[in-house]
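Whiteboard transcription, Tuesday session. T.W. wrote the structure tokens on the left side:
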């Protein structure tokens, strides 16, 4: 499977989105190794699919990956990013119980 990376331009620099097989999903998965040198203020954001595979409580439709990425791109910067992202996910999900884990990790160079 071809490794792809999309780039969204942001005022803080490019927002890169890697699309590849899930880590840990299959034992025999090959991954392409990429190396990046972090500059001051840059971040690496890791997440589980449960962050965007939530169902909109009002419409019954799944929240799209594209909408999740837009939320991340606008909320990732700043000290309250985690609370902001959880608030957005809960807003979409409503009072429904989550069907999957919600895992988000941000690694930043300061």
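and on the right, the sequence the group agreed on:
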């Amino acid at each position: 499977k071809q490794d792809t990376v999309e780039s969204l331009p942001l005022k803080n620099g490019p927002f890169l989105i890697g699309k590849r097989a899930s880590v840990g999903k299959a034992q025999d998965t090959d991954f392409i190794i990429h190396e990046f040198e972090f500059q001051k203020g840059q971040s690496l954001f890791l997440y589980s699919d449960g962050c965007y595979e939530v169902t909109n409580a009002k419409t019954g439709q799944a929240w799209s990956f594209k909408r999740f990425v837009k939320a991340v791109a606008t909320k990732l910067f700043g000290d309250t990013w985690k609370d902001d992202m959880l608030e957005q996910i809960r807003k979409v999900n409503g009072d429904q119980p989550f069907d999957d884990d919600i895992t988000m990790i941000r690694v930043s160079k300061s």
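Someone added at the bottom: The radius of gyration is 15 Å.
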